[in-house]
Amino acid sequence: MPAVSPGPAADTGLRIGMLTPSSNTVLEPETQALIAPLEGRASVHFARFRVTQIGLDAAADSQFALEPILAAADLLADAKPAVIAWNGTSASWRGFDSDDRLCAAITERSGVPATSAIRALNGAMAALGVRRLGLVTPYTEDVQQAIARNYAAQGIEVVAEVHAGLRENYAFCRLSEAKVAEMCREVASARPDAIAVVCTNMRGARNVAALEAELGVPILDSVAVTLWGCLQAAGADMAPLAPLGRLFGLRAPG
Asked: What topology is assigned to 14-119+224-247 in CATH?
């Protein structure tokens, strides 16, 4: 029997690779929902490495050792993405330079440009000129304080914050959309320049447009911001995503 001809090559569009905490159940479906208006033009592909606890102790910090992350990035690179993103927020408490090192290592090893949730968040805040930030997270108090310190060192004051006091990464997904919206409303009373929902296992992305209209404050959800950063890095047209929130009309400086 003759071999079946594969026919003309299909145009698979823009491919985005994302590295995901192993215990995360929110970012994948949320990202797929956000990118749906670009169906046929862009797709997102995921790889996991083990992250189960969030804290400042050595055991929690060891989850972010480079080699397991790079091994996951190697597998993503096989899919020939235009960009690879670390879709996690660890640099917000570990130090922004940790993502700089990670992204450089991914690119050196795979040849693929790399970004992260926090690099994208910082770019979006720069585009908005944020100096007063409302901070919403599921984390413990000490992690929240570390995040605030890191932003203070960059000239951004956390003027209001709410955190759920949780350590188990899987548990973050149990915070409902309504709860996340309530947390955003609480910090909005301080009239920050923007509200950052810092965690990619938290259900904030789909409420952004409605909450922005209600509160009059830009809301930068980590899942949405990571996708925005990837699309920007790839030079993609984000106009179809404009109804999802102010973020998708921004261009980061530089």
From this structure: Rossmann fold (3.40.50)
Residues of the chain with CATH 3.40.50.1860: 127-221
CATH 3.40.50.12500 region(s) of the chain?
A: 14-119+224-247
Task: Pull the structure tokens for residue 65.
Answer: 């050792």
Distance CA 204, CA 31 (A): 11
Above 60 in pLDDT, residue 55? Answer: yes
User: Which residues have CB under 8 Å from 39's CB, separation 6+?
Assistant: none
Encoded tokens for 154: 């960059």
- Say yes or no: domain 127-221 is CATH 3.90.1170.20: no
Largest CA distance in the chain: 72
Question: For 161-189, what is the mean pLDDT?
Answer: 97
Q: Which residues pair with 85 in a beta bridge?
A: 18, 115
Phi, psi of 163 (to 5 degrees): -140, 150
pLDDT at 3: 52
Whether the pTM exceeds 0.85: the reply is yes
